[in-house]
Amino acid sequence: SMPAWSVPPDHQPRAALRGNRSVGSATLQLCATMSCMSRNTAKSSLLLAGLAGFFIVLGRTFAGPSGMIIGLVMGLLMVGFSYWFSDKLAIRSAHAELVTEEQFPQYFQIVRELSERAEIPMPRLYVAPNPQPNAFATGRGPKNAAICINQGIMDALTWEELAGVLAHELAHVKNRDILTGSIAAAIGTAISFIANMAMFFGGGGDDEDRPNPIAAIAMMMLAPMAAGIIQMAVSRSREYEADRSAARLMGDGEPLARALEKISFGVERRPVRVNPNQASAYIANPLGGMRMPGASKLFTTHPPMEERIARLRGGDWRN
Fold first, then answer.
1. Which of 169, 241, 254, 261 is the catalytic position?
2. Do 156 and 263 contact (CB within 8 A), yes or no?
3. In the beta sheet, which residues pair with residue 298?
4. What is the pLDDT of residues 202-255, one digit of tens each?
5. DSSP string over 204-236
6. How far apart, in Å, do the first and last CA atoms of the chain sit?
7. How would residue 8 be classed by pLDDT, with cut points 50, 70 and 90?
8. Cα(280)–Cα(228) distance, rounded to whole angstroms?
9. Helix, strand, coil shares of the chain as percentages rounded to 5?
């Protein structure tokens, strides 16, 4: 039987991509400057430092001065986990499977050509059994990156449109902001977990060490909001930059613009429950179709889709 990714030769995106090679190769270098990579490295470092600091404050809040040491140890452990295992957490959360070129030849063909043009190593490729048209990239950097697409995106997009999506995800890899997003997701998971468990923790051994109950209640209420704010701040600007970089890589913003239109429609039609802390990793907010006003607004990690499409079609990416 024909594999799921088999399409007629005239639908292959390779020809369309090859025609704009010179434009994409030249302009991609502009967005992949050392300043861009240094900025994202600095963001990652600040997030890791903030995570350690948060656990110290958390320990002080719930266990008094003596809890600061416990908080420091927990913070250091979480920092290490966030750096080394955030990509595995994202892949596991999506229930994705590593795929081979024999299974998905067109998927590999597109990513290989785009990776060569971007001058980055070929990432590991995954497919998630999710009917919603969506995709994300994760990993610590270009040398150990991974891209995951949902099964639903293969049914919704043409190959040229999917190439635009994959160029967007490779732009995240090239710009070195996938680590920042992965760390933000891990921080959100940690903060939300601690907030949910806060009610089970009591005070210290004496009145001096006993935590302030008002502070404890405030922490329980504000922690989930802090998680959402962290991810929102990280994600909004980087999505615009990844869109611009993808259009430059393709030499055309229209394929990604059409893809975003279809993805936006698909997300609304096929809402799925995913870990809200992983929502910022996707090209479109997977919670966008959920009828949960509080949660959806709290974890609104992406800029308006209409604005992203307008920028792509308006030619802002050429500047």
1. 169
2. yes
3. none
4. 444 455 555 556 555 655 665 565 555 555 556 667 889 999 999 999 999 999
5. -SSTTTPPPHHHHHHHHHHHHHHHHHHHHHHHH
6. 46
7. very low
8. 10
9. 70, 5, 25
* Rounded (10°) angle between helices 34-63 and 67-93: 130
Do 283 and 165 form a contact (C-beta atoms < 8 A)? yes
Between CA 299 and CA 286 the distance in angstroms is 10
Nearest to 51 by CA among 33, 31, 71, 34: 71
Report pLDDT digits (tens) over 133-190.
Answer: 999 999 888 998 999 999 999 999 999 999 999 999 999 998 887 777 666 666 666 6
Q: Confirm whether pTM is higher than 0.85.
A: no
Identify the pLDDT of residue 141: 84
Percent of the chain with pLDDT over 70: 57
35-76 pLDDT per residue, tens: 555 555 555 566 666 666 767 776 776 667 777 777 777 777
Please give, one letter per residue, the 3-state secondary structure of 13-76: CHHHHHHCHHHHHHHHHHHCCHHHHHHHHHHHHHHHHHHHHHHHHHHHHHHCCCHHHHHHHHHH
Active site residue 169: yes
Separation between Cα atoms, residue 308 and residue 261, nearest integer Å? 10
| Cα(184)–Cα(194) distance, integer angstroms | 15
Task: Indicate if the alpha-carbon torsion angle 132, 135, 138, 144 is positive or negative.
Answer: positive
pLDDT at 101: 96
Question: Length of the chain in residues, anyone?
Answer: 319
User: What H or E segment, with its residue span, contains residue 163?
Assistant: helix 159-174
For residues 168 and 245, what is the distance between their CA atoms, to the nearest angstrom?
7
**Which one-letter amino acid corresponds to residue 229?**
I
Please give the pLDDT value at position 287.
Answer: 83
HSE-up (13 A, CA, CB side) for residue 240: 13
